């Protein structure tokens, strides 16, 4: 990934974030040198009047049409697989990742976006009813047919990602080269999913990080700022993150933030971007000041001593 290592999340664009504000955020992101805009065909069905997704992609389509020069400056990523088939029976009833469903969903996304090809298409939510090999072939065929440049997986366990990659490579198809999961500085208690996390394999674990580092896969992180809980007193850190290890992590995060003159959230973003491997945070903010803070954060270089302090906090915590 080149340019600013930050993706602008468009999840709520056109739903809870009105068109004028959405356009302003998109314009500012591009003006600042941002490239990647991330959405999904199911965004945001849970908040839409219809109970189905597509609003975010449609808004991006209107923005791209109103900004004819923007398409050459931005990269669009979208996801398929999690859109409800029956809005009253999700997640049991969703489009899934069969070859037919993948192609139909991808074509629908392109129509809503008003473009001929996306830059990265993600398998949004694993589908155990379909052999992962079939899904890998379906995504590889979309690359061959020019509907997407690259393919990725979101919320999949490492073994299925590697199985999909091996199958694609053996058949001369484009393999998965990007992973999208939830990641932040604080870690939830083992076996506990944070609020809003409804994917069994949604959290980025060490096996996925090791796979990405070994195979040189991109990693994207959603909810890196815990929906604003690091810095907004009105948003307490979720109970799933309440454990002794995180209490020490928060102490160190506060120390580093004070030394840098930055906010907690800015340190978290800088920590993700400058890590090994580097992780691209997805910003889902709805306010211009949130975008400006994030843009400043991803340009912030953590001195090695401070990064080491953040990385080694678990090893130095009292027993």
From TrEMBL:
NADP-dependent oxidoreductase domain boundaries: 5-314
One GO cellular component term: cytosol
One protein family per Pfam: Aldo_ket_red
Name of the protein in its database record: Aryl-alcohol dehydrogenase-like predicted oxidoreductase
Protein's organism: Diaminobutyricimonas aerilata
Upper taxonomic lineage: Bacteria, Bacillati, Actinomycetota, Actinomycetes, Micrococcales
């Amino acid at each position: 990934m080149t340019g600013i290592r930050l993706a602008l999340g468009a999840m709520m664009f056109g739903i809870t974030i009105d068109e004028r504000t959405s356009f302003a955020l998109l314009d500012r992101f591009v003006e600042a040198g941002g490239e990647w805009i991330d959405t999904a065909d199911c965004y945001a069905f849970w908040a839409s009047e219809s109970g189905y997704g597509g609003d975010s992609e449609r808004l991006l389509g209107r923005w791209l049409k109103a900004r004819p020069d923007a398409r050459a400056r931005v990269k669009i990523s979208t996801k398929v697989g999690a859109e409800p088939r029956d809005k009253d029976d999700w997640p049991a009833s969703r489009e899934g990742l069969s070859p037919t469903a993948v192609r139909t969903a991808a074509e629908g996304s392109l129509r809503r976006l008003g473009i001929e090809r996306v830059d990265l298409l993600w398998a949004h939510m694993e589908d155990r009813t379909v052999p992962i090999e079939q899904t890998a072939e379906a995504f590889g065929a979309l690359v061959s047919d020019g509907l997407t440049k690259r393919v990725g997986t979101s919320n999949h366990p490492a073994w299925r990602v590697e199985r999909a990659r091996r199958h694609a490579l053996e058949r001369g198809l484009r393999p998965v080269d990007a992973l999208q999961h939830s990641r932040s500085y604080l870690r939830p208690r083992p076996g506990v999913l944070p609020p809003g996390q409804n994917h069994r394999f949604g959290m980025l674990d060490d096996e996925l990080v090791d796979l990405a580092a070994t195979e040189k896969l991109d990693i994207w992180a959603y909810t890196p700022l815990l929906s604003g809980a690091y810095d907004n007193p009105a948003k307490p850190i979720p109970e799933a993150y309440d454990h002794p290890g995180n209490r020490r992590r928060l102490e160190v995060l506060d120390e580093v933030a004070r030394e840098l003159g930055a906010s907690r959230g800015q340190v978290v973003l800088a920590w993700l971007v400058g890590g090994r491997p580097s992780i691209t945070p997805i910003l889902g903010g709805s306010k211009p000041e949130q975008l400006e803070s994030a843009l400043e954060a991803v340009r912030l270089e953590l001195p090695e001593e401070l990064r080491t302090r953040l990385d080694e906090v678990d090893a130095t915590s009292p027993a």
